[in-house]
Design goal:
It contains eight helices and eight strands; from the N terminus they run E-E-H-H-H-E-E-H-E-H-E-H-E-H-E-H. It is an alpha/beta fold and about 190 residues long. The strands form two sheets. A six-stranded mixed beta sheet has the order 3-4-8-5-6-7. A two-stranded antiparallel sheet has the order 1-2. The longest helix has 17 residues, at about 25-40. It is elongated, with a radius of gyration of 19 Å. It starts with a strand and ends in a 7-residue tail after the last helix.
Length: about 190
């Protein structure tokens, strides 16, 4: 749950969010400001509407892959982070997450700042460099070479499925597996059985 306080009135509102991740606290402030502006312009948006919308964001928008936990023991998290801002948020989230060891399945597209994104990731994790099955995907061997140059340890895998299977085969129950780097990478994860 997130508590939002209106500065002028000191009114506290507690909202249950179905999206996880620390960065959602910043997003909720944007939502609150947008709702305030819409109400000022005459839109009728009740508090019940706001609560329903925030607690059903995934269902209403189809948005997935924002610190989305799809499995426990080991925890498997999907996050579509693929640029500097997204990876910064993921790095902050990882700092507040408990685990024994971190495994990162990552694939990027060719037109992203690969070196910058990789430099933001923890060197203590085990990496599974992969690619989404799209033409824009950076080949897994090229990504692995960039990762190794950035001090990251891991192997290349020809598909997201193979990379995640390898991570699951290696991970202990108290580990975390993060799948990230592209909407396309996250989209190739079978959410029914990681």
């Amino acid at each position: 749950d997130v508590t939002v306080v209106e500065k002028k009135t000191d009114v506290h509102a507690v909202y249950a969010l179905d999206l996880q991740g620390l960065y959602q606290t910043g997003n909720i402030l944007t939502v609150a400001a947008a709702i305030h502006e819409l109400r000022e312009k005459g839109w009728v948006i009740t508090e019940a509407d706001t609560r329903t919308g925030l607690s059903n964001t995934r269902k209403l928008t189809g948005l997935h892959g924002r610190w989305e936990i799809i499995h426990r023991q080991p925890v498997v998290v999907l996050d579509v982070a693929h640029n500097e801002d997204g990876m910064r948020q993921v790095a902050l989230q990882l700092e507040t997450t408990s685990f024994h060891h971190l495994h990162i399945v990552i694939g990027l597209v060719k037109d992203k700042e690969v070196k910058l994104v990789l430099s933001m990731l923890p060197v203590t994790a085990t990496y599974y460099f992969t690619r989404a099955q799209i033409p824009r995907a950076l080949p897994e061997e090229a990504l692995a070479a960039e990762g190794h140059a950035a001090g990251l340890t891991g192997e290349a895998f020809p598909s997201v499925t193979a990379a995640l299977a390898a991570a699951l085969a290696t991970a202990q129950p108290d580990d975390v597996i993060l799948v990230c780097g592209s909407v396309f990478v996250v989209g190739e994860v079978d959410r029914l059985r990681p």
